[in-house]
Specification:
Order of helices and strands: HHHHHH
Largest sheet: none
Helix content: over 70%
Number of strands: 0
Oligomer: single chain
Number of helices: 6
Radius of gyration: 18 Å
Shape: elongated
Distance between the termini: 43 Å
């Protein structure tokens, strides 16, 4: 590998940019929970999560805290683990595609 490419791949700024690009999804979802509060509450109610306000706030906190830990490389394992657990629970609780039939299942 050429030295110039190796230097780019090993630079701290490149790793910061890479982490930021990975976290765009989590951060944008966290900001949506805060700035579009009513729609976020509707999402929580549609998923059957009560009290909706609690789950909305908890979700936003997990998304922001996990993302910041990963982004700033502080307790990286904890931030990545929190976001991974969040994704797993989202799939199990909200995106229950295995229970759907007909047109919903096809989507």
């Amino acid at each position: 590998m050429p030295n110039s490419i190796a230097r780019i791949l090993e630079s701290r700024s490149m790793w910061l940019i890479a982490r930021l690009l990975i976290l765009v999804l989590f951060l944008s979802s966290g900001f949506a929970k805060v700035f579009d509060y009513q729609n976020s509450l509707a999402e929580m109610r549609a998923a059957g999560l009560n009290p909706d306000w609690f789950f909305n706030i908890a979700t936003a906190i997990i998304l922001f805290c996990g993302s910041l830990l990963v982004l700033f490389d502080r307790y990286l394992w904890l931030g990545a683990g929190a976001l991974a657990l969040f994704l797993f629970l989202t799939i199990v609780i909200v995106h229950t595609f295995w229970n759907m039939t007909g047109d919903k299942a096809m989507l």
